[in-house]
Each structure stands twice: as C-alpha cells, then as structure tokens.
Amino acid sequence: MAKNAAKSQLYALSLTQSYRYEGARLPSMGENEQEMTIDSGALGFGVGERAVYAADPWTTRGRYFTEPSSPTRSDFQRDRDRIVHTTAFRRLKHKTQVFIAADGDHYRTRLTHTVEVAQIARALARALRLDEDLAEGVALVHDFGHTPGEDALHAVLEPFGGFDHNAQSLRIVTKLERRYAEFDGLNLTWESLEGLVKHNGPLLDADGEGTRGPIPLPIVEYCECHDLELASHASLEAQVAAIADDIAYNTHDIDDGLRSGYLTFEMLEDVPFLAGLMREVRDRYPNLEASRFTHEMMRRQITRMVEDVIGVAQAHLREIKPRSADDIRQAGVTFAHFSDEMAVTDREIKKLLFTRIYRNPEIMRIRANAAQIVTDLFHAFMDNPWRCGATIGLTTYNRCPNRRGLGKLATILRA
Q: Do 113 and 144 touch, CB atoms closer than 8 A?
C-alpha cells in the first residue's frame, strides 16, 4: 500500500511539473478562454483515504429492510452489484438513445450510454476522492425509468399525475424488481436511493414547494416511509453521476450523428469549442482518416469537460470547506457542474444536437410511430389490465408501518 501511495504521489507531482503551474490550467476552448485550474496535488488516484466530504459506506444510513452486512463488500458495492444484476439493467439494451437498432450495431443504446456515464462518474469520483462505488451505482441506475415514447406516455397519464422517469426508476428498485425472498425491489441503501431521486438537485425549495413542479406521487409515497430529504442536495457522488450524464451524451450524440450523416464536420464549426478541438486535431494529425479524427476529437471533448468539472468542484470545496457528506447536502449549492464558460458550450452543443438530430424529420417520424404504439398499448392495457401480466408483490411501502411523520407532507404534495 505504501508503495502504491508513493507512486500516486509521484504521478501527481509529474502532472504538476508537466503543466508547470501550481495548478493545471485547462487548455483553450476556442473563442471561450477557460480560466479554471485544477489543483493536481488534491487529486485522487484510487489509493489512500476518501475525502472527509465523501459518502462513507461504513456509516451508511442503512436500508429500509435491515440486512446483515457482507464480509467482503461495502454496502455501496453491494448496491452497485445488485443494480447490474437486475432485469431492468438488461432491458436497457433494447432502449435507444436516438437511433433505433435497425440503423446499425454501432449506435448507442441506453445500456451503452449508461456504461459510458458510469465510467465518467468513476473518473470524477476518483479525482475528487469520493466513494467510486456509490457514484457508479447512481450512474448505472439513473436511466432505469426511461421508456420508449416517453412524451406520449406522459400525455396519456396526465389525468393520473403524468409520467416521471426518476419516479419510475424509484418504483423499479423499490417495488417492481422481484428477485429476493424477503422484500420487493433491491433494498438499496438510503444514499443510493437519494442519489437516484435527487441527482439533479433538490425536489423541494425552502418553502416546501416543488422545484420543478409537483413531486411525483411514487416519490412522495416512498418518502412517507423512508425520508429521502427532498429539500436538500444529494451527495457529491450523485452530483458527479448527474454531470457525467451530460458529458456522455453531449459527446456520443455527436459521434453517432457524424456516423449517421445527420451531422457533418462543417456543422460542428458553428460551436467554437468544437471548432477549436477540430483545429487542434488537424494541426497534430493533418491527414487523419475520418473515423480516427472523430475519436480524437471526442476524447478531447470528454477530457476538457471532465477537467472543467473537477476544477469547479475543487473551487467550491476550497471555499465551503465541507467536513462531511451532510455538509455537502446542506451547503445549498451544487458542487459538480460546468464553469460559466463551459456551460455556454454545453448549451451550444445541445442546440446543435436539437436542431440537426433530435428534430430531424426522419427522427421525428420514428418518434411519432413509437408514440402511437405506446398510446395504443396504454388504452389496451387500461381496457384489460391483466394483459400486462400483473402479479402481486410481497410488500408495499404504501402501507408501511412507520411513516416517520411525513403524512402531512404527502397531503400537501398531493393537493
């Protein structure tokens, strides 16, 4: 262990020396100069202790149903492993991001997207000396609730409160997965569940109002039994999983767009950040074939965005000086996000993708067909619910014995 720690310190030192700065200044983002710096000496490399503000699996708030601990794995490792072994995780392979399976094997699906998000989340967690297993677990579960034709499903369910994919993810891991003899769901730790529900920020403001509208009923009902503290932020592990999602799809949707022909390199010139990356690759590799050129550009995009988030998070940590994971939750700010300059780039990339791909007439035609199928299935199942193959679960938290004083909150949120 001492030898590994020494290697880690030498690597960190080499990074500092190679940049010849006290902190590593991030490369230029084209026309938007990036002033954010990284404190290389504060980076984690997978050895040594977690930071004091990291979530601690040995002092977890526990599971809803008490279970004995494992002699070989932490509770967050067990959460991650349970998520990977679910039916819901395997079903992600048939859910598409943008392109359907008939378009080719090389396009991203929800499953491959999720794996990419998990990789980026682990990289961020390691650099910030967080619990990598918790960050990875939240990343792996974050898309469980997405469905085909989601907008259409929300429309037909609007009289019943609509559809929310995060609420559906919670239902999957607390009710719908039926693998264990003693309970429904996966019985994940409190920290994994709060990360799933709150990775995009608090759901309630200081006045008890929903930050993004009414709280979905499945979340309300679960919190009556197992309070996920909807007014606070999630752990920093959950926050890095959330920003990893943005980094992953910003990058791979460009890659898939170029492969499909919906995007061209000329179109990417409209985004100064991407134009700068392309110039950088061309200058270094003047005659590179298109597929290698794309990859060289994409790897640089991921690196710049990851390093930007690390620099921002380190700045917040230096300023606020949290001494525990709860200090992160109660700080009232998001620690893991893009800098102002990178946030501009993020919006420009999303605008490009929305205009050129997501609203492309051919993509819209496919989406319309999917929406019609979902709508027809909904009405067929409403006419005869048993066509769903419904089964009776062992337990439901709707009738939990210890509501922990949240009945009034539930009444308010349902109103």
A: no
Q: List, for residues 292-339, the tens digit of each pLDDT value.
A: 999 999 999 999 999 999 999 999 999 999 999 999 999 999 999 999
Model pLDDT, residue 13: 39
- Across all residues in the chain, what is the average pLDDT? 85
DSSP per residue over 84-98, as a string? HTSHHHHHGGGSBSS
Coil, helix or strand at residue 287: coil
- β-pairing, 24-25 with 37-38? antiparallel
The answer to whether the beta carbons of residues 251 and 148 sit under 8 Å apart is no
260: closest CA among 117, 337, 343, 357? 357
Instruction: Name all contacts of 114-117 with Cβ < 8 Å and 24+ positions apart.
Output: 114/89, 114/139, 114/140, 114/142, 114/143, 116/248, 116/252, 117/142, 117/241, 117/244, 117/245, 117/248
Other C-beta atoms closer than 10 Å to the C-beta of 261 total: 7
For tokens 């300023």, what's the residue? Answer: 319
CB count within 10 Å of CB 20 equals 8
Nearest to 44 by CA among 320, 333, 331, 317: 317
| CA atoms of 45 and 334, how far apart (whole Å) | 23
Sort residue 65 into left (φ over 0), alpha (ψ -120 to 50) or beta: beta
pLDDT in tens, 95-106: 776 665 556 678
DSSP 8-state class, residue 146: -
Q: Provide the phi-psi class of 201: left if phi over 0, else alpha when psi is between -120 and 50, else beta.
A: left
> What confidence score (pLDDT) does residue 17 get?
35
Q: Cα–Cα distance between 232 and 156 in angstroms, integer?
A: 31
pLDDT tens per residue, range 146-173: 988 888 999 999 888 889 999 999 999 9
pTM: 0.84
